[in-house]
Write a structure and sequence with these properties.
Helix content is about 80%, strand content about 0%.
Length: about 160
């Protein structure tokens, strides 16, 4: 059965954006508390930057995952898709740990695991579609920066 390319891209982008939107919805109260009461480290972006950046990153994740899905079936493809879903799940729960539970220490270690998963996903994606792997680089960089912010918030709010 032939895969519909544009439908696959659309579905993958919408699925990634839906994960982000659901996380955003679930943490809205925690975000309010965070923005008004938590000390933040230097270089913390303004609150408006986060939904903009994440919307772009989730779109890139969707395009990237669609590219991998549309390749010929293989063990590397399945591994990449598994790692993609796993890291997306970790991404989702990090928001709840950090914003709603304000478990900044646990969120930091969760984020370290997420970073490892992102690197493994990129390596796996590169085996089947180099462009898909490269599309994940902004995500890796942003989550690395989020690690700095998470650690800073943890240290400033002990």
């Amino acid at each position: 059965m032939k895969k519909s390319v544009w439908k696959t891209y659309l579905l993958c982008i919408l699925a990634a954006e839906a994960v982000g939107a659901l996380a955003g919805f679930l943490i809205r109260d925690g975000l309010q508390i965070y923005s008004t009461t938590i000390l933040k480290p230097p270089l913390s972006p303004p609150a408006i930057a986060f939904p903009i950046v994440w919307t772009v990153l989730y779109a890139l994740m969707g395009v990237s995952s669609a590219r991998v899905y549309l390749t010929e079936p293989s063990a590397a493809r399945m591994s990449g898709i598994f790692l993609y879903i796993t890291q997306l799940t970790f991404n989702f729960f990090w928001s709840i740990l950090f914003f709603n539970l304000q478990a900044f220490d646990a969120a930091f270690f969760w984020l370290v695991i997420l970073l490892v998963q992102i690197v493994l996903m990129i390596m796996s994606f590169k085996k089947v579609d180099a462009t898909a792997a490269y599309l994940q680089i902004p995500y890796l960089l942003w989550v690395t920066f989020a690690g700095y912010l998470n650690f800073g918030v943890w240290m400033l709010n002990k």
